[in-house]
Amino acid sequence: MKILVAVKQVAALDEDFEIGSDGRDVDPDFLIRDLNEWDDFSLEEAVKIKEASGDPVEVIAVSVGPEEVDESLRKCLAKGADRALRVWDEAVRGSDPIAIARILAAVAKRETPDMLFAGVQSSDQSFASTGIATAGLLGWPHGAVVANLRYAPGAKTAVFRRELEGGLLHEVEIQVPAVLTIQAGINTPRYASLRSIKQAAAKPIEVLGLSDLAVDAATVGEAGSLSRVRRMYIPEKGRAQLIEGSPAEQAARLAAIIREFKGEAA
Amino acid sequence: MSGLLIIAEQRRGELRPVSLELVGAAQSLRRDGEQVAVAVLGQDPGRFAAALSVAGVDEIVTVKVPSQEFDPDTFAAAVGALIDARRPDVVLVAHSVDSFGYAAALAAARGLGFATDVFKVERIDGELVATRGGYGQKVSVELDFPGRSTVLLALRANMFKPPEAGAAPKVTAFEAPAAASRSVGKEFVELSAADDVDMTAAEFILTIGRGIGEEAKVPQFRELADAVGATLGCSRPIADAGWLPKSRQVGQSGKTASSCKLYIAMGVSGAIQHLAGMKHVPNIIAVNSDAEASIFTVATYGIVGDIFEIAEELRSLF
Predict the structure, then answer these.
(1) Residues 6 or more apart in contact with residue B147 via CB below 8 angstroms
(2) Which residues, 6+ apart, have CB-to-CB distance to A10 below 8 Å?
(3) Which has the least CB within 10 A, A165, B6, B9, B176?
(4) Residue B233 in this model has a pLDDT that exceeds 50
């Protein structure tokens, strides 16, 4: 039994970031990289299923990106993934989530997992599309925003609850293999122990190129994307009027606003 | 390729308000002579026709499907068939949990131009341009769709004005192909109320976010909220960690602060999902150590500082 977990190394912005000279992305010098928050939950969900299963289950973390992505994959290995795969080719640069999904679908065809998990969305670009697009390309059943999952490896179906707007859940039974996008909060991701971090550092990360997966380079990158970045810009700053002063002065102003709201004399 | 196709959203017998916002958004994209059609799917889709009869809609397309509630395979097949039959140049859906479940699969399988969480749509020199946020909403990104004859856009809720005037569009039934559904929707489950707080009724809310750092800090903010007379709320990470019950979470997947008049956010960065539940509040005060936090973009007043210091000083005044 196998569970494939698709993860992304996301980028947060340094405080004083700048847009690059082509005006279409942030200058990479200002990017701080880390494993996507949602993917921490989907990896944990896979590892939990593995630990609860009587049959052997292999958890494979896969990511698309250059060498620096190994750092996030090592994190996955330290938190319980059995294997890590990284796919890269310079032709992949400029891919939108759908082009990335073409690669993930090819990896799924090669690995033939029983389940494919992805995070609901990435914390940087927030398309909420990669996992479900992968399902569409594979022709697999799919469910999005899974906040609770009951699945035993080997079972023909899984039951999950998708988290709707406004505090409502919808229970769904789905055929397996399936692609599920996992919502933050579904579990409590573990911390990696020092020992497991050391062990992960020694584990190999398998690196694949597009030809290993029989993916045509013309179907990824900008050419294989369903949208193109025309321009990126820093939007106008918000309108909050800043309350200045010492903490005591700031708190006094805040207290006055509260008293005014409550109709009390300041 | 011409015309706009909107996919309305309904759940448990109610049309979701975002459906009409999509109609509003379509007006700025419509070119001379172009028709706007709104499709609605369900076991008895005609029941939604009256609610969808608003200005800017030329046609309501009812699509009878076996499942009353959202089902990803049914929706992908029916919307795909509608696109084949109508050849619209733009398809608008809501950026919602339902569309998360099928829009990307449909776009990928059919090679449609595609973007999600779009908050601005326009035509620039005749080309469709969609704007969305990037890097945690710190930048805006304009996307275009070269060579795509049909573009599917998922639009963010509460960004486009719904039409107010009524209209009498024609109603057409569309025969959807039978789809083999590989999942079965079962019951809806309301979030169990771990305490009896009703965030939607609270007029004064003090919300804590990730900035509080650790669970041990929750009691002092609970006490502060009590002292100033506010209802204590939280952002998603606090509820996910189990530090406060989910019933106190404000935001898209939590509760909307619908009656709130004064909202104090402490240590809340202002993820777009949180803003969705509170940005309409007339008086918002944000306290955060990060001057760049998104919460300041919706706040009336902002305090850049240490939330613990401010909390302590504030407590001493009540």
Answers:
(1) none
(2) A33, A34, A35, A36, A37, A122, A123, A124, A125
(3) B176
(4) yes
**Min CA distance, A217 vs chain B (Å)?**
16
* Beta strand segments in chain B, E: 4-7, 10-11, 14-15, 36-42, 59-64, 90-94, 113-124, 127-134, 139-144, 151-155, 170-174, 183-190, 204-208, 231-234, 262-266, 283-288, 301-304
A260 lies in some domain: no
**Mean pLDDT of all residues in B223-231:** 95
Nearest alpha carbon to residue B283 among B300, B258, B303, B298: B300
Backbone angles phi, psi at B60, to 5 degrees: -110, 125
**Residue A245 counted as domain residue:** no
Identity of the residue in A144, A228, A251 whose CB atom sits nearest the CB atom of B310? A251
Asked whether residue A230 is assigned to any structural domain, the reply reads no
- A132–B105 CB contact, under 8 Å: yes
> Domains in chain A: how many in total?
1
Report the CATH number at residue A203: 3.40.50.620
CB-hemisphere CA count at 13 Å for B197? 23
For residue A26, give the DSSP letter.
B
Q: What is the pLDDT of residues B32-85, one digit of tens each?
A: 889 999 999 999 999 999 999 999 999 999 999 999 999 999 999 999 999 999
Please give the C-alpha separations between residue B264 and each of A5, A165, B68, B261, in angstroms, as whole numbers.
38, 23, 40, 10
The answer for B 29-58 residues in CB contact with A (under 8 A) is: none
Cα torsion through A136, A141, A145, A146, rounded to 10: -150
What is the signed CA dihedral for A108, A112, A118, A122, rounded to 10 degrees? -20
Provide, as residue numbers in chain A, all residues whose Cβ is less than 8 Å from the Cβ of B247: 167
- Residues above pLDDT 90, as percent of chain A: 92
- Backbone φ and ψ for A250, nearest 5 degrees, come out as -65, -45
ipTM for this model: 0.93
Enclosing domain of residue A132: 2-219
Q: Return d(Cα B26, Cα B3) in angstroms, integer.
A: 10
Query: What element of type H or E holds A4?
Result: strand A2-6
Cα–Cα nearest to B154, from A80, A121, A39? A121
Stated pTM of the model: 0.90
Please tell me whether the peptide bond between A177 and the residue prior to it is cis, using omega within 30 degrees of 0. Answer: yes
Strands B262-266 and B231-234: unpaired
The answer to whether the CB atoms of A247 and B309 lie below 8 A apart is yes
Residue corresponding to tokens 């980028």: A11
Separation between Cα atoms, residue B308 and residue B312, nearest integer Å: 6
Q: What is the pLDDT of residue A266?
A: 45
Residue A262 falls inside a structural domain: no
